[in-house]
Specification:
The protein contains 21 helices and 19 strands. By secondary structure, the protein is of the alpha/beta class. It has two domains: 248 residues, 2-enoyl-CoA Hydratase, Chain A, domain 1, CATH 3.90.226; 177 residues, 2-enoyl-CoA Hydratase, Chain A, domain 1 (Alpha-Beta Complex). The strands form four sheets. Strands 12, 13, 14, 15, 16, 17, 18 and 19 form an eight-stranded mixed beta sheet that branches. A seven-stranded mixed beta sheet has the order 1-4-5-6-7-9-11, sandwiched between helices. Helix 13 runs parallel beside helix 15.
Length: 518
């Protein structure tokens, strides 16, 4: 091997590290954004990064066929580690033609792409998205247009969802296929003020629909973390987003063929929580703080909430109990009374799928008044959403424990119960349940009797008092054997269940029987 060859290799590597050039990098920094290489340095363990495909790009040669200039592909791919565990990372480089995919693929003989490596190595896949998708400029490079056949390239992305943890971070204006890839993940995140996603940006909207709109109005965090639910979490800065990625992955196994790592948290499994005895107010019209409830039963400092601004009637999170990773969800009565609407039901479904795919026990802290009623709920399709939630509940297999805190009504209530597999349910003495609330149910079931009474209001109250006398959970326990427990003992009971669940989880390794859908 000649010295010239080694010098050319080093030259190409150095030109690649310059990304889109000093001017492009300065422009990128001027918008308050990190370059792809700066992001990778913050994300992965120091010294662990091994780039691949870094010689791919566009080169020009002089009249002696020597390298004159090299522009790297608008993407940096690497194998690395996070907290000592292997990952594959793919980062869009917006300094090179806006990270456009128009640089094309190598075709015959091309090396494995990052998602294919993640699949074959069975390691988590992380996308740092900062790319504009396809560009009409690419047609000039190609010399023609092309039929959309991207699923030949995106099929591995679909396969990955059933094999390894997949994370997407939206770190700029992301359009086209990268915008879909933002959601082709188990969890995703945006950055305040600098992130947007959309199929087509404001110029495309103007051409198609005739109105002007800003990028932020069209696809910023206000839309996607609060209204559409397309993005789970929001970060204050890029560094915050990268730190959240590390935290999210810490709760999951490297692949579905392994169990999630246990860590020592220093919080005793048998710790009781006497404050839970007074959590639920005696007045049924007053609400409790569901986050205090969740934090009281999981290991201190371990709570990682998912989609906190979307579907707010349901809290969903990852956490640890006695050091073991778990999924946990709780109805939040401060929003829609805790009733399950389409958004919160979808949010719960995603957590259930995540736990089932990656072998995490699921904890449900139920205060379920039922599916949300009303015309807006009907317009949103609450019945079909409810049917999906029922079907998914019955098809899951991960160990599942439910603690009935206060209410458990109707079909939404039955979605906190599973008739098969390792399932356990406890109830607090404050719990009440049935097909529907007594107040609304009595008015419907005894309508004629109430209407024909001399004093309809007095008759309604009389009937409700009679029915409420039957609502004691102890009467249910007499007939069914339902276990009712001291709220203070909730954490030790959950910890024992999570510990026992490890034997079952060890038998469930491998891809989930029900495919994961984003």
């Amino acid at each position: 091997m000649s010295t010239d060859d080694l010098e050319e290799l080093e030259q190409r590597i150095e030109l690649g590290r310059e990304m889109g050039g000093a001017d492009s990098v300065a422009f990128h920094h001027g918008r308050g954004k990190l370059t792809v290489r700066e992001r990778l340095d913050l994300l992965v363990d120091p010294g662990s990064m091994e780039e691949f495909g870094h010689l791919q790009g566009h080169a020009t040669y002089d009249e002696h066929n020597r390298l004159a200039h090299f522009t790297p592909r608008g993407e940096v791919n690497a194998m690395a580690s996070i907290d000592g565990r292997p990952v594959v990372v793919s980062g869009g480089d917006f300094t090179v033609r806006g990270g456009s995919a128009s640089t094309g693929h190598g075709g015959l003989g091309e090396e494995l792409r990052p998602q294919e490596r993640a699949r074959e190595w069975r390691v988590p896949y992380i996308r740092l998205l900062d790319a504009a998708g396809g560009s009409v400029r690419g047609f000039e490079d190609l010399g023609r247009t092309y039929l959309p056949d991207g699923n030949a390239f995106t099929y591995p992305d679909v396969e990955l969802l059933n094999l390894v943890p997949v994370v997407s971070a939206v770190l700029g204006s992301v359009a086209g296929l990268p915008a879909v890839n933002a959601c082709m993940a188990h969890w995703n995140i945006m950055v305040e003020n600098t992130s947007q996603i959309f199929p087509g940006g404001p110029p495309v909207v103007k051409a198609a629909l005739g109105y002007d709109i800003t990028k932020e109005e069209l696809g910023g965090p206000e839309i996607h973390t609060r209204v559409s639910g397309c993005v789970d979490n929001l970060a204050a800065t890029e560094a915050d987003a990268l730190d959240q990625i590390r935290r999210f992955l810490s709760y999951l196994p490297t692949s579905v063929y392994e169990t999630a790592p246990r860590v020592e948290t220093g919080d005793p499994a048998d710790r009781t929580a006497p404050e839970l005895r007074t959590l639920v107010p005696d007045n049924p019209r007053r609400v409790h703080d569901a986050r205090k409830l969740v934090e009281a039963v999981v290991d201190r400092g371990s709570l990682f909430e998912i989609a906190p601004f979307y579907g707010r009637a349901r809290i969903t999170a990852l956490a640890r109990v006695d050091g073991y990773p778990v999924g946990i969800m709780a109805n939040d009565p401060r929003f829609n009374g805790g009733a399950t609407d389409v958004d919160s039901g979808a949010k719960a479904s995603r957590l259930m799928q995540l736990c089932d795919t990656f072998h995490l026990p699921l904890i449900s802290l139920a205060d379920e008044p039922g599916f949300l009623v009303g015309i807006e709920s009907e317009r949103a399709g609450i019945e079909r959403a409810g049917a999906r939630l029922v079907a998914l509940t019955c098809r899951t297999r991960m160990p599942w424990i439910t603690i009935v805190i206060r209410r458990l009504y109707g079909v939404a209530g039955q979605c906190h119960h599973r008739p098969s597999g390792m399932f356990r349910r406890y109830a607090w003495p404050s719990a009440r349940w049935g097909s529907m609330h007594i107040a609304g149910g009595a008015s419907a079931a005894y309508r004629r009797e109430i209407a024909s009474a001399d004093d309809p209001e007095a008759k309604r109250i009389e009937i409700e008092d009679r029915l409420n006398a039957l609502a004691s959970p102890f009467r249910t326990a007499e007939a069914t054997g339902q276990d009712i427990v001291d709220p203070a003992a909730t954490r030790p009971l959950i910890a024992r269940f999570v510990h026992d669940a490890q034997r079952i989880l060890a038998t469930q390794l491998g891809p989930p029987p029900v495919p994961y859908f984003p």
